[in-house]
């Protein structure tokens, strides 16, 4: 992943994460859970969580900001693989899609104005 942030992201940015799962290719993804997080709290390590462990592992092969505000510039993540120790035991083997929407204020499915949208597809086997 390569991205260029064209304007500074200030304190208060949040992320809405959606996790979807499917057993086999050709079947539709099923939503399994959604979660909102305060992104600035996550990156400064205010609370240990699975997301914080994932983020910390990404820093080994990426240059993400580690404090807020997040300045303009080039950010990347190259060659990241998730260590099996960071995969919750309740995750089934299969295909996953994790989508993220970064926003300010409250998350609204139909009326929000996201700052960034992204998704990651992965296979757990």
Automatic annotation (TrEMBL):
<protein>
    <submittedName>
        <fullName>Uncharacterized protein</fullName>
    </submittedName>
</protein>
<dbReference type="InterPro" id="IPR010512">
    <property type="entry name" value="DUF1091"/>
</dbReference>
<dbReference type="Pfam" id="PF06477">
    <property type="entry name" value="DUF1091"/>
</dbReference>
């Amino acid at each position: 992943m390569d991205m260029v942030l064209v304007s500074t992201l200030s304190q208060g940015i949040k992320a809405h994460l959606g996790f979807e799962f499917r057993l086999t290719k050709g079947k539709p993804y099923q939503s399994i859970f959604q979660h909102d997080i305060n992104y600035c709290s996550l990156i400064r390590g205010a609370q240990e969580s699975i997301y914080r462990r994932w983020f910390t592992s990404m820093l080994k092969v990426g240059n993400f900001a580690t404090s807020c505000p997040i300045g303009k510039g080039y950010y990347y993540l190259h060659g990241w693989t998730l260590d099996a120790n960071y995969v919750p035991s309740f995750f089934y083997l299969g295909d996953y899609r994790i989508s993220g929407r970064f926003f300010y204020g409250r998350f609204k499915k139909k009326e929000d104005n996201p700052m960034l949208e992204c998704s990651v597809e992965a296979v757990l086997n």
